[in-house]
Amino acid sequence: MAAAEAAVGSSSSLKTDTVPVPESAGTAAATAATSSATAAAAAVAAAVRTGSEARVSKPALATKLLSLSGVFAVHKPKGPTSAELLNRLKEKLLAEAGMPSPEWTKRKKQTLKIGHGGTLDSAARGVLVVGIGKGTKMLTNMLSGSKRYIAIGELGKATDTLDSTGKVTEEKPYDKITQEDIEGILQKFTGNIMQVPPLYSALKKDGQRLSTLMKRGEAVEAKPARPVTVYSLSLQKFQPPFFTLDVECGGGFYIRSLVSDIGKELSSCANVLELTRTKQGPFTLEEHALPEDKWTIDDIAQSLEHCSSLLPGELALKKSKPEESNEQMLSCQRTRRTSRSDD
After folding, report:
1. What DSSP character marks residue 241?
2. Which listed residue (17, 121, 175, 181) is catalytic?
3. DSSP per-residue string spanning 116-156
């Protein structure tokens, strides 16, 4: 809209210099005629200006979209996978920018890169960190950084996915388990520990996700236990068979595995009923995660500006000049960071 605003400013500042003359009937008539002509010219200019704004608004938005660079957060609801949500975000931005449009198709390609910094399962909700432009290069740091979750577990039932979306594979009594029992074992799962990832996960075997292989009915061996870190773990509520945990952990940690292991430690079994990621790195659900109605070019630009101050100095991106997108076509490339899932 910058070009349009410049056009508006230029046309609105135009003025006609007049030389004072003695008042007479002739001059009055001439003045009236001049006024009428000026009014007509102004009307034409306004019409041209409006049309010009309509023509340049989409290219201007595309220019702004291509200039976006950095890391921000969105609010992922329950339902879509992280990849599906990223596609939805991408489509909304392209539609707002009117891209791709026929007038750009014959010109040089310009790629819009967008990716996320850590898979959040379809059944989970919460903070999903997104990188756009050069910000996609910062996503590795998001994967390895700390995350915080609120998880509701259900005692007495085990499932093949370790959460409520899976098939029940085992049921055990839980009626003798107390709040003190749960609190007493949490220390075993705090600090640097070893954890076996779930079979249904984004981890890969021969280039394919384990979850994809499992859904096909193929035999999949569990990955070996690996070192993970839990910074803090506390019981927030216990109302049998449900218990609520507040967990802060490092990258590569699976909440589903934690809840399942807690059930086993209590001589029962358990699965995740609900999961919310409340924080990822410096991004919090309440303060930084954009809801879908805020997935606009302007809102994301403002969020990038705000979130740049949250990142360490060595990771913060310097503002780059907008791409010369008026002479280039916008295409899309999604950068996926899914080798490490944390739920």
Report:
1. T
2. 121
3. ESSB--TT-EEEEEEEEGGGGGGHHHHHHS-EEEEEEEEET
pLDDT digits (tens, 9 = 90+) for 11-45: 333 333 333 434 444 444 444 434 443 443 444 34
Peptide bond into 100 cis (omega under 30): yes
* Active-site annotation holds for 342: no
Q: Output the CA–CA distances (angstroms, integers) from residue 277 to 77, 120, 200, 208, 274, in the order listed.
A: 11, 8, 19, 26, 10
State whether residue 299 is helix, strand or coil. Answer: helix
pTM over the 0.85 mark: no
Tens of pLDDT along 49-66?
444 444 447 889 999 999
Query: Per the omega criterion (within 30 degrees of 0), is the bond before 241 cis?
Result: yes
Region for 96 from its dihedrals, namely left if φ exceeds 0, alpha if ψ lies in -120 to 50, beta otherwise: alpha
Q: Map tokens 């079994």 to a residue.
A: 269
Contact 309, 71 (CB under 8 A): no
